[in-house]
C-alpha cells in the first residue's frame, strides 16, 4: 500500500517535530517534510504531498496566504488548517478558500491520524469543538438564508435528507445508519450534492445545510 504523504507547515520547529512524530507513528502515513510558511509552495511542488497540515497563524507568511497559493496549484493537496483557538476568526475565510479541514493543535494523536486519512481520501474534517464555531459564524443572524435555500432546490428528497445530516456533522457511516442506507450509497449522494451545490467539500455543504434551515436546532425550549 502506498503511504499517505504528509507535509507539515508551521513556524515553530518544536510543533513541526511533535506533529511529525505523531503522524509518522502510523505505518500508512509518511511525513515527507516540514517547513515554514514561506517555503510551503516550493515544498509542495517538490514533495507532492497528499495532505498538508498548515498552521493558520505564522509570522513570515500567514496560513491564509499560503492556502491561497496552494489552492492555485494545478493539483493542490488536501489542506487542514491548524490553530490553537477554537474561535479563530480566520476559520470561515479558510473554508471559503478551500481548506478541507480545521484542527486544533491539541487534537488527540489518534484523532489527528484519523483526520489525515479522511483528508487523503477526499473527505473533510473539523475538530468537534470547532464545528459549532464554524457553523455559527456562517449562520449568525437567525433564520434561513434565501440564497442558501435556493441552492438546495435542485436536490432530490433523499439528497436533502443526507445534506441535513451532513449539517449535523455526521460521518458517512453515521448517515448510512440513520437513513438505513449503504455507506457507498451515501458517498454517491454526497458526491452528487457537492456537485449540485458547487461546494468544494462536505464542510461547505454542511454550512449550506445550516444556512438553508435544514438542520434542526438541538437547543431545548425554555420550560
From TrEMBL:
UniProt keyword Protein transport, yes or no: no
GO BP term, example: regulation of DNA-templated transcription
The keyword Oxidoreductase belongs to this UniProt entry's keyword annotation: no
Pfam families in the record: GerE, Response_reg
GO MF annotation: an example: DNA binding
4-aspartylphosphate, modified sites: 55
InterPro entries named in the record: CheY-like_superfamily (IPR011006), NreC/VraR/RcsB-like_REC (IPR058245), Sig_transdc_resp-reg_C-effctor (IPR016032), Sig_transdc_resp-reg_receiver (IPR001789), Tscrpt_reg_LuxR_C (IPR000792), WalR-like (IPR039420)
All copies of domain Response regulatory, residue ranges: 5-120
Residue span, HTH luxR-type domain: 148-213
PROSITE patterns: HTH_LUXR_1, HTH_LUXR_2, RESPONSE_REGULATORY
Keywords, sorted A to Z: DNA-binding, Phosphoprotein, Transcription, Transcription regulation
Top-level taxon: Bacteria
SMART domains per record: HTH_LUXR, REC
PANTHER family: TRANSCRIPTIONAL REGULATORY PROTEIN NARL-RELATED, TWO-COMPONENT RESPONSE REGULATOR
Protein name: LuxR family two component transcriptional regulator
Amino acid at each position: 500500500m502506498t503511504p499517505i504523504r504528509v507535509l507539515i507547515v508551521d513556524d515553530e520547529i518544536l510543533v513541526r517535530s511533535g506533529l511529525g512524530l505523531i503522524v509518522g507513528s502510523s505505518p500508512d502515513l509518511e511525513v515527507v517534510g516540514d517547513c515554514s510558511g514561506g517555503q510551503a509552495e516550493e515544498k509542495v511542488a517538490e514533495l507532492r504531498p497528499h495532505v498538508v497540515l498548515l498552521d493558520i497563524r505564522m509570522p513570515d507568511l500567514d496560513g491564509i496566504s499560503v492556502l491561497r497559493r496552494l489552492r492555485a496549484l494545478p493539483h493542490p493537496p488536501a489542506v487542514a488548517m491548524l490553530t490553537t483557538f477554537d474561535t479563530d476568526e480566520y476559520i470561515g475565510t479558510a473554508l471559503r478558500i478551500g481548506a478541507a479541514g480545521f484542527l486544533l493543535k491539541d487534537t488527540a494523536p489518534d484523532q489527528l491520524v484519523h483526520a489525515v486519512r479522511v483528508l487523503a481520501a477526499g473527505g473533510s474534517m473539523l475538530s468537534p469543538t470547532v464545528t459549532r464555531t464554524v457553523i455559527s459564524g456562517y449562520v449568525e443572524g437567525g433564520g434561513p438564508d434565501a440564497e442558501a435555500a435556493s441552492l438546495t432546490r435542485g436536490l432530490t428528497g433523499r439528497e436533502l435528507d443526507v445534506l441535513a445530516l451532513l449539517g449535523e456533522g455526521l460521518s458517512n457511516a453515521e448517515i448510512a445508519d440513520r437513513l438505513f442506507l449503504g455507506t457507498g450509497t451515501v458517498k454517491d449522494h454526497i458526491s452528487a450534492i457537492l456537485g449540485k451545490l458547487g461546494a468544494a467539500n462536505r464542510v461547505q455543504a454542511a454550512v449550506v445545510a445550516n444556512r438553508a434551515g435544514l438542520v434542526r436546532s438541538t437547543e431545548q425550549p425554555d420550560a
